[in-house]
C-alpha cells in the first residue's frame, strides 16, 4: 500500500495455526477492517483490547 509517508508492505503469507472460525470469515473480518481504515484514510491499526484482537485474529491473549 502506498501512503503519503511511503510504502507499507502487507503480509501475504499463509495463516499460522488453527483459527476458531473459517478462513473465509477471517478474510471477511480483515477486509471489513481494511475498508473502515481506508474510509478514514488510516494506514495503520493497533488494538490493545483482548476482545478486538480475538475478533480480528482469533488469537486468545493471556489477558482475556
Query: How many extended strands?
Result: 2
Report mean pLDDT, rounded to a whole number.
80
Total helical elements: 2
Largest sheet: 2 strands, antiparallel
Domain count: the total is 1
**CA distance, first residue to last residue:** 32 Å
Report the principal-axis shape.
Answer: flat
Report the C-alpha radius of gyration, rounded. Answer: 13 Å
Domain Creatinase N-terminal: 29-59
InterPro entries: Creatin/AminoP/Spt16_N, Creatinase_N
Protein name: Creatinase N-terminal domain-containing protein
Task: Kindly describe this structure.
- The chain has 64 residues and is mainly alpha-helical.
- It has one domain.
- The protein is 39% helix and 6% strand.
- It contains two helices and two strands; from the N terminus they run ββαα.
- The chain has helices spanning 23-39, 50-57, and strands at residues 2-3, 6-7.
- Strands 1-2 form a two-stranded antiparallel ribbon.
- A hairpin with a 2-residue loop joins strand 1 and strand 2 (6-7).
- The chain is flat and about 30 Å long.
- The model has no long low-confidence stretch (mean pLDDT 80).
Amino acid at each position: 500500500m502506498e501512503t503519503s509517508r511511503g510504502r507499507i508492505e502487507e503480509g501475504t503469507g499463509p495463516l499460522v495455526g488453527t483459527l476458531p472460525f473459517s478462513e473465509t470469515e477471517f478474510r471477511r473480518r480483515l477486509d471489513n477492517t481494511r475498508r473502515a481504515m481506508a474510509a478514514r484514510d488510516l494506514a495503520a491499526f493497533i488494538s490493545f483490547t483482548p476482545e478486538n484482537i480475538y475478533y480480528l485474529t482469533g488469537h486468545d491473549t493471556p489477558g482475556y
